Amino acid sequence: MIRALYLWTLRMAEHRHALWVLAFVAFIESSVFPIPPDILMIPMIIAAPRRAFVIAGVATLASVLGGMFGYWIGAVLFDTIGQPILAFYGKEAYFDAFSQNYNAWGAWAVLIAGVTPFPYKVITILSGSTGLNLWVFIIASILARGLRFFLVAALLWKFGAPIRDFIERRLGLMFTIAMALLIGGFYAVKFL
Fold it and tell me: Where do the structural domains in the chain lie, given as residue ranges?
């Protein structure tokens, strides 16, 4: 099923309404869909580099709105929809353990999940179910998703197709390392 969704997503990058499809995929990926919008963004930007930042803007806006939908699922429908989604991604134990202290570090969690390969939808649902301040959630989502999508757009705009392999294979790892260094830097400054 995942492979079929992946192939469908790639075919949609060539569709004449690809920007609308991207918005739809970015929206639902932030709450329930397993395929990231980067799969659509990359071929769209390579095909039309002059539109790279418009494409990134659409992905960011739709992703944040989808994140708000995930937040709503967590806040209102956690037992009926949120719990099964977390079960699908194998994150129930993570939810139970992490929800205890989540709101103290929620903005960081949203920021990290919004940039790294960690499923952002898990954090959107978790944020709603624990009652993370909605404005904190929205601001962290805009920063994280904007950073992720605009960086991909900038790399593709600047370097084109040769950077595609790097982005598809290693960008998640690079974001994870960057976030670890950022958090480590904050801890180092705090204890100096």
Answer: 2-191
pLDDT at residue 1 greater than cutoff 60 = no
Give the phi and the psi of residue 122 in degrees, each rounded to 5: -65, -40
Vertex 133: Cα angle to 59 and 190 (nearest 5): 95
Higher pLDDT, 83 or 155: 155
Output the CA torsion sign for 174, 179, 182, 187: negative
pLDDT at residue number 56? 96
CA separation for the pair 143, 139 (Å, rounded): 6
Interatomic CA distance for residues 12 and 57, integer angstroms: 18
Rounded to whole angstroms, how far apart are CA atoms 19 and 27? 12
Instruction: Report pLDDT for 168.
Output: 62
pTM: 0.74
CA distance readout (Å), 3 to 9, 10, 22, 44, 163? 10, 11, 18, 20, 23
160, 100 contact by CB (below 8 A): no
Helix axes 134-159, 120-130, angle to 10 degrees: 170
- Contact assessment for residue 34 and residue 163, using Cβ atoms and an 8 Å cutoff: no
Inter-CA distances, 150 with 12, 24, 74, 94, Å = 20, 18, 27, 29
